[in-house]
Description:
Blueprint: H1 2-36, H2 39-49, E1 55-59, H3 62-76, E2 81-83, H4 86-89, E3 102-106, H5 116-124, E4 129-133, H6 139-143, E5 146-149, H7 169-189, H8 193-199, H9 203-208, H10 212-215, E6 224-225, H11 231-241, E7 245-249, E8 255-260, H12 261-266, H13 277-280, E9 282-283, E10 287-289, H14 294-303, E11 310-314, E12 323-328, H15 329-334
Parallel strand pairs: 1-2, 1-3, 3-4, 4-5, 6-7, 10-11
Antiparallel strand pairs: 7-8, 8-9, 11-12
Helix pairs in contact: 1-7, 2-7, 3-7
Amino acid sequence: MKAQLESEKAESVADLEVARRVLDVEARALRTLAGLLDGGFVEAVTRLAAVEGRVIVTGMGKSGLVARKIAATLASTGTPALFVHPGEASHGDLGMITPKDALIALSNSGNTLELSDMITYAKRFAIPLVAMTARADSALAEAADVALILPGAAQGAPEACPMGLAPTTSTTLMLALGDALAVALLERKGFSTSDFKLLHPGGALGKRLLRVADLMHGADALPLCAPDTVVSEAILIMTAGHFGCVGIVDANRRLVGIITDGDLRRHMNRDILTLHAAEIMTPKPRTIRANALAAEAVSFMNTSSPPFLCVFVVDEDGPPERPIGILHMHDCLRAGVI
């Protein structure tokens, strides 16, 4: 039993050493790649940014799997993109590629036979071709308009497997370089958080990108009254609104105060119902912009002193402090914003 435990412990140590070695090899290769980037990368970004159609990404085998991910990343960050399998391209899918598109081809050797028809097609119709390969003297690199050359074993970036054969470091470099292209294009195009939200409406990411305007109750639901409204009537408006508060607006519909349950308790006396709203309101209430992220609103309400559950929404582009909506903490929670 003791011998078995010692053997398992030794295997665990060996496994961790392998994992750390692989990660270290690939991390050093990424640093090498970063140092080798030059004007060719800038030219690739320029050509891809100028495309009127889509960026077609292709590759065979493991490179093809990476190409699929690069196409997905490009598409989700504002650069329309599509993966086309080189084998299927030779049997009709070349029709997916138009003269307004650009092509990114991935091949570590640069001599992948299955890419030949796509390369020929790109040259025939003057479709910009960006190559991602480790061989500057390969058929792919020589045919490309821009060749992004990956470091190989000679430059200190060997494959991480002990035989130096399994695509490991090379595919990591392709994946990272694809991310670099996507982010460079994103920033050059000025792709914003709002744009990102349009392409990511689902899941946790979509919830994080929801804005106050997406969740707020609009002008028709606003519980508002004038400063000279008697408190008894203000309470009726507050009750009908179901928000636990009523906003006080002046003749220009500017929000000058708010009455909450807390204000009512603090001013509770036998004459409170005959007072005017202005006499018990909290002046200059806190508000939030309509285009603020809903997550920002949650943080704003939670971290204020004291915290509160409801906030009036104003449009920063409109007249100052005129409420256009109201947001309750429960609206955010129901939408999954935390």
